[in-house]
Amino acid sequence: MSDIYSILQSNYVTAGSNIAGLATSNTPYVAVDAKSYEGTWSGAYANGAKYTVQITNVVGFRAKVRYQSGSTLKYQDVLIKDNSFKFGDSKFTLTSDGNAQLKTVLTNAATGAQSLETSYATLG
């Protein structure tokens, strides 16, 4: 049995060191101003498709997100770090002017082609 634990332990250390190199930010999670995030954010992609991102229950650096665009509806718990969070195929970033940037990978249902769309949302 000790051989199994030894193998698991050595592989765990190896995998952990590989994953650590992928970190994009060394800053810690810190509490955010809930008023800056909470509410319904609205915007539209370049193709005219409208979306809303509803952010609720911001406590510390955690929040609940509801995203809707057309018939697509997603719910997710998120962690806010460096003024942004990821959910589904999107990344929401609070900008310095109090608006938000939303980057989303959109997939064309007919062709399967993917594109990265950047749009801006306002709270209101």
The low-pLDDT segments are 12-21
Which strand order do you get reading across the main beta sheet? 4-3-2-1-8-7-6-5
Number of domains: 1
Count of β-strands: 8
CATH class: Mainly Beta
Topology:
Blueprint: H1 2-20, H2 34-37, E1 39-44, E2 50-59, E3 62-69, E4 72-79, E5 84-87, E6 90-94, E7 100-107, E8 114-123
Antiparallel strand pairs: 1-2, 1-8, 2-3, 3-4, 5-6, 6-7, 7-8
What does this structure look like?
There is one protein chain. With 124 residues, the chain is an alpha+beta fold. The chain has one domain (34-123): Beta Barrel (Lipocalin), CATH 2.40.128.20. Helices cover 19% and strands 48% of the residues. The protein is built from two helices and eight strands. The chain has an eight-stranded antiparallel sheet with strand order 4-3-2-1-8-7-6-5. Strand 7 and strand 8 form a beta hairpin. It is globular. The chain starts with a helix and ends with a strand. The model is unreliable at 12-21 (pLDDT under 50).
Summarize the structure in short:
This protein is α+β, with helices and mostly antiparallel strands and 124 residues long.
Describe this protein with a few key phrases.
single chain; 124 residues; alpha+beta; Lipocalin; eight-stranded antiparallel β-sheet; 8 strands; 19% helix; globular
